[in-house]
Amino acid sequence: MATTMSSTSITHGEKPVKTTVVKSKKKFIVKMVIPFSLRCGGCERRTDKGDRICGLKEEIGKDSTFDVEIYRFTFTCLCCRNTFSIISDPGRYDYVLESGATLVPKKF
After folding, report:
1. Domain locations in the chain as residue ranges
2. Bridge-based pairing state of the strands 101-103 and 38-40
């Protein structure tokens, strides 16, 4: 179980800055480029391929064929704070949309 620790001891000028640290070996806060266009399930906002979004990266298992870790990336919508997640797929060298959003079909 991940524990969080908050601290307000860091100050810049007169405004205190609150920092949060997630203490776990398998969860990281990352900034990732979205690999495909998708539409939020809550507010229908479109997020295009190539947009950078901060999210949580966690290890969920290992692929038995290639002996590579499988990761889940959980993001929040910038408009309505709905969460959506994608999973790495080492077998296809791609990502799979897990929940919280729908894929936008490619236009040629």
Report:
1. 25-103
2. antiparallel
Q: Give CA–CA dist 39/100, Å, rounded.
A: 9
pLDDT along the chain (108 residues), means of 10: 44 46 68 94 93 93 88 94 94 93 88
DSSP for 14-51, please give it: TEEEEEEEEE-SSEEEEEEE-SS-EEETTT--EE-TT-
Reading the block at residue 4, the tokens are 């969080």
* pTM of the model as a whole: 0.72
Buried b (16+ CB within 10 A) or exposed e, 56-79: bebeeeeeeeeeeeebbbbbbbee
Place of tokens 């806060």: 29
Q: Are 17 and 10 in contact (CB under 8 A)?
A: yes
Q: Which amino acid is at 71?
A: Y
Cβ-contact 90, 71 below 8 angstroms: no
